[in-house]
């Protein structure tokens, strides 16, 4: 194939291809991109003709990515990431900043509890560093750190402990006990504090291990360490949904005081005796950005 042929493909086509691979479906990709399925299909076919490569095998209503497609997906994904980073860096330079910092927080946590105060304090000292803060689920935040999309993340202690210590480092920002959330009609509300054994006959609302396996692991670990298996009666897709799925006076869920809905008056909250939770800030050891080191050093414990 002549290298000149590659000049006929567009960045948009590459993005469409990446989305189709990740969705494993033309239909789902078109829905997420807010485009017609026929438009996506035509763009992918055009890309295949331009590159003289078969990227997908079409079988009835399903697609199978080829070996060539798998290789191109990995290379295109990295190339698009570098293009986006270059554009972001250019905007930072144009805005008069010397460096940037991307920070990820948890969408189920109160931003005023730790992230915003620390960022505000840092900005006062380092006015020439551009800071972007975005919030996602526990799983998404960790994956974005692993993939290099984020420089620093604030996450729950039980999840940061799952990171590879040879690649990542972390610092504990705050510690507290775990807490139990339940309806006010739950008999356990009469106690001043709750022990883990008090939860033996409770029914747990849990985040699905499909979305946050570390939460499920924590729940099972604290229960089995006291001789019983947690009776999980309902799984949610996110921590934000825990409070909305307490359906009777036997159901409970586990969180801590940094949970966004903590102290919501419609729910009874009790500390869980003998447990430890907390928030940690984590980063990649090989991240050479000066702004990362400056931010970590600015956190006074």
CATH class of the largest domain: Alpha Beta
Shape: globular
Secondary structure: helix percent: 25-40%
Q: What is the averaged pLDDT score?
A: 90
Strand order of the largest sheet: 4-3-5-12-6
Taking Cα atoms only, what radius of gyration do you get, to the nearest Å?
Answer: 23 Å
Order of helices and strands: HHHEEHEHEHEHEEEHEEEEH
Level-2 CATH architecture of the largest domain = 3-Layer(aba) Sandwich
What is the CATH topology descriptor of the largest domain?
D-Maltodextrin-Binding Protein, domain 2
Name the CATH superfamily classification of the largest domain: Periplasmic binding protein-like II
State the helix count.
9
Largest sheet: 5 strands, mixed
- How many domains? The number is 3
Low-pLDDT residue spans: none
Q: Measure the end-to-end span.
A: 59 Å
Total count of strands: 12
GO molecular function: DNA binding; DNA-binding transcription factor activity
Family: Belongs to the LysR transcriptional regulatory family.
Protein name: LysR family transcriptional regulator
Domain HTH lysR-type: 9-66
């Amino acid at each position: 194939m002549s290298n000149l042929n590659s000049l006929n493909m567009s960045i948009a086509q590459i993005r469409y291809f990446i989305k189709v691979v990740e969705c494993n479906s033309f239909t789902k990709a078109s829905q997420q991109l807010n485009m017609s399925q026929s438009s996506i299909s035509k763009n992918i076919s055009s890309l295949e003709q331009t590159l003289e490569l078969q990227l997908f095998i079409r079988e009835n209503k399903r697609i199978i990515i080829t070996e060539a497609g798998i290789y191109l997906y990995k290379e295109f994904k990295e190339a698009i990431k570098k293009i986006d980073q270059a554009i972001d860096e250019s905007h930072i330079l144009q805005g008069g900043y010397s460096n940037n910092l991307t920070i990820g927080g948890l969408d189920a946590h109160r931003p005023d509890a730790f992230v915003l105060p620390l960022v505000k304090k840092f900005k006062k000292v380092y006015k020439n560093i551009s800071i972007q803060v975005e919030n996602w689920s526990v799983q998404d935040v960790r994956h974005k750190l692993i993939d290099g999309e984020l420089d620093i993340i604030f996450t729950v202690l039980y999840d940061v402990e799952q990171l590879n210590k040879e690649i990542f480092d972390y610092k504990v920002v705050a510690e507290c006990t775990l807490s139990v959330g339940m309806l006010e009609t739950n008999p356990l509300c009469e106690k001043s504090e709750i022990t883990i054994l008090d939860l033996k006959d409770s029914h747990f609302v849990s985040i699905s291990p499909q979305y946050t396996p570390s939460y499920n692991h924590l729940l099972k670990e604290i229960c089995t360490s006291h001789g019983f298996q947690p009776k999980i009666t309902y799984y949610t897709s996110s921590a934000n949904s825990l409070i909305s799925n307490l359906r009777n006076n036997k159901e409970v869920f586990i969180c801590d005081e940094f949970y966004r809905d903590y102290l919501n008056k419609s729910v009874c909250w009790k500390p869980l005796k003998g447990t430890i939770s907390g928030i940690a800030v984590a980063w990649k050891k090989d991240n050479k950005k000066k702004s990362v080191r400056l931010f970590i050093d600015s956190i006074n414990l």
